[in-house]
Amino acid sequence: MEDNKGQNRRDFLKILSLSTIAGLSLGSISCSSFDMEEFLQKNFREMSEEEKRKVVRRLEEKYLKKYGKKFHISTQPAESGVLWGYGLDLSRCVGCRRCVYACVRENNQSRVNPQLHWIRVIRLKKGSLINLEHAEHYYNPETVPEPGYIYMPVQC
After folding, report:
1. Distance CA 71, CA 63 (A)
2. Taking phi first (over 0 means left), then psi (-120 to 50 degrees means alpha), and beta for anything else, what does residue 108 get?
3. Contact 118, 103 (CB under 8 A)
4. Would you say 122 and 100 are in contact if contact means Cβ atoms under 8 Å apart?
5. What is the pLDDT of residues 89-108, one digit of tens each?
6. What distances in angstroms separate CA 73 from CA 56, 60, 81, one per listed residue?
7. What are the residue boundaries of the structural domains of the chain, listed by start?
């Protein structure tokens, strides 16, 4: 089924399809904050020391640009026998639960019933002894921190 210009229908549809796919691909890449280097990097445990230095440098530059603050990222390995761990600065807790949301996002935890979280933030009256039986786990004020209260993240 040749037309007058020597191009058949199959070739025309092939070129049209490829052009459409290429156009959509370029549009979606430029609209997202996709980082190819981050996507292709190895698992941290599989990296050489030089690869780790490059990743740390890239992340420190990224965070400086994003937050306007200088970050220091350590690549110190865990002690032998340690399989998993996390750290929280208890003195900085204001009760906003950002640590909980970040943990859920980082570890791909449940966001629907049943909600599973590895960190909870409890509210305690300021000046009282730390009594977990009287602590509030389900507080919901308009803003935090509230006057007269302290907040403490705890592992579930």
Report:
1. 7
2. left
3. yes
4. no
5. 888 899 999 988 888 887 77
6. 6, 7, 22
7. 36-77, 90-155
